[in-house]
């Protein structure tokens, strides 16, 4: 008898993905660098973001030095990343904020830092401060729906809340990375490669037979 799948068991999903994708967070336990590198990462591949962040921090190792930098110098360093002009402004303004107030720990305060939205706020909490949190981006949104964990109408905040109820707290910090890794190469926005996916025996998505 064919049993129709409606919901992929979250812990089995995390377990399978953790066996498939490795993870080494950038600048772990350094909230300033996690925050600034997250600004650089928007719409930019990790292979470009992190070497560029390394270069930035080699020229400007402290928030004060970055806060006092000339915008054109920052733009030259940040050229490899997408939207580098906007990011140069954000990075400098964020550095000035950090110089004055430090890196916040709450989502509410973090989202007041220039260039920081809810996703980067969760990443700073998780990897900068070691506070369990789940970063939700487009990959996490899409795949959570395909796995039957969330509904079509759920926004990022609702998705985050649901994932926090589905997963044990010690797995929260890894979920973003695992789903992003899956989403980049296999569970793509268009035509997901279900036949190559480690989750294909669990996933209820209609294109997965
Ligand atoms: S690739 Fe297919 S089987 Fe894998 S999670 Fe995405 S929709 Fe499900």
Automatic annotation (TrEMBL):
This is Endonuclease III. Residues 40-185 form the HhH-GPD domain. PANTHER family: ENDONUCLEASE III-LIKE PROTEIN 1. One of its GO terms (molecular function) is 4 iron, 4 sulfur cluster binding. Its cofactor is [4Fe-4S] cluster. One of its GO terms (biological process) is base-excision repair, AP site formation. It comes from Coprothermobacter proteolyticus (strain ATCC 35245 / DSM 5265 / OCM 4 / BT). It holds the Pfam family HhH-GPD. It comes from the Bacteria. Belongs to the Nth/MutY family. Its EC number is 4.2.99.18. Gene3D superfamilies: Helix-hairpin-Helix base-excision DNA repair enzymes (C-terminal) (1.10.1670.10), Hypothetical protein, domain 2 (1.10.340.30). The gene is nth2. The keyword DNA repair applies. Keywords: DNA damage, DNA repair, Endonuclease, Glycosidase, Hydrolase, Iron, Iron-sulfur, Lyase, Metal-binding, Nuclease. PROSITE patterns: ENDONUCLEASE_III_1 (PS00764). SMART domains: ENDO3c, FES.
